[in-house]
């Protein structure tokens, strides 16, 4: 069974397994919770294992923590969606190569009866200003994830203090944040893939979407030379996601379950 914080792919195939039938050490992947909570990771990891013979041990955390685990040598590779922090870590030499692999978008969600709150907003900044004056609550991830970092950037662009009373701080993954927004009858910012996968009986709807400010790019980060314990495995993971097989898996995910692709491979 897949758990959000950590799991291990148990499939081992091909000659990459250690001699005598023993498994090589698993590739330690630190990954943003949205890739896990959307279900995409449950497709990518078994395919990577089947293609390379490498098992994978996953820590599903916020993007900032994933970058930290990689920089500390506690992860071999990371899959994150926080471009500003990724660039800073790369410029400082804390991580190595950055390979963009896929994208989707952020969406503003909330109870359908709140549609009128953001109706007519020209962009996400206008939508957030409308939320701020509406008297409705907004669930904030508060966990230094890529989604949280984008949320903070958007509040700043909208001229709204991130410490405003209507913003409900919360530390947890995307799926948990959506659940809290449903219970609190509140707005929240979500990646589109996790929302469409998890919406079920939440009673939430997409109330605003579109615009470059909501673009959401995911990248594979490889370790810096001084912390690399499995540089070959990290490169193999990045190359798999950029391969025709990896791109097909990314681009087709969601079509059967929600009726549309949830991620788009980058060119």
From TrEMBL:
Q: Which residues form the PBP domain?
A: 29-243
Gene3D superfamilies documented for this protein: Periplasmic binding protein-like II (3.40.190.10)
List, alphabetically, the Pfam families matched. PBP_like_2
- Kindly give the PANTHER family that the UniProt entry links to this protein: EXTRACELLULAR TUNGSTATE BINDING PROTEIN (PTHR37945:SF1)
Protein name per the record: Substrate-binding domain-containing protein
Organism classification: Bacteria, Pseudomonadati, Myxococcota, Polyangia, Nannocystales
């Amino acid at each position: 069974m897949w758990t959000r914080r950590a799991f291990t792919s148990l499939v081992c195939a091909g000659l990459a397994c250690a001699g005598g039938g023993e498994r090589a050490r698993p590739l330690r992947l630190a990954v943003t919770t949205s890739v896990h909570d959307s279900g995409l990771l449950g497709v990518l990891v078994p395919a990577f294992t089947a293609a390379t013979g490498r098992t994978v041990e996953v820590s599903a955390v916020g993007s900032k923590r994933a970058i930290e685990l990689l920089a500390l040598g506690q992860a071999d590779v990371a899959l994150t969606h926080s471009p500003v922090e990724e660039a800073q870590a790369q410029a400082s030499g804390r991580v190595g190569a950055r390979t963009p692999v896929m994208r989707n978008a952020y969406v503003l969600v909330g109870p359908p009866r709140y549609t009128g709150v953001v109706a007519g907003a020209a962009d996400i900044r206008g939508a957030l200003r409308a939320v701020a004056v509406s008297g409705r609550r907004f669930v904030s991830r508060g966990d230094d994830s890529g989604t949280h970092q984008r949320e903070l950037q958007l509040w700043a662009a909208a001229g709204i203090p991130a410490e405003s009373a209507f913003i409900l701080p919360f530390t947890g993954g995307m799926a948990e944040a959506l659940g809290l927004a449903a219970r609190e009858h509140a707005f929240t910012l979500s990646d589109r893939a996790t929302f469409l996968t998890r919406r079920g009986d939440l009673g939430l709807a997409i109330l605003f979407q579109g615009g470059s400010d909501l673009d959401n790019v995911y990248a594979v980060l490889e370790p810096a030379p001084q912390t690399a314990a499995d540089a070959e495995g990290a490169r193999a993971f990045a190359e798999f996601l950029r391969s025709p097989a990896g791109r097909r898996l990314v681009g087709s995910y969601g079509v059967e379950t929600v009726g549309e692709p949830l991620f788009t491979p980058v060119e």
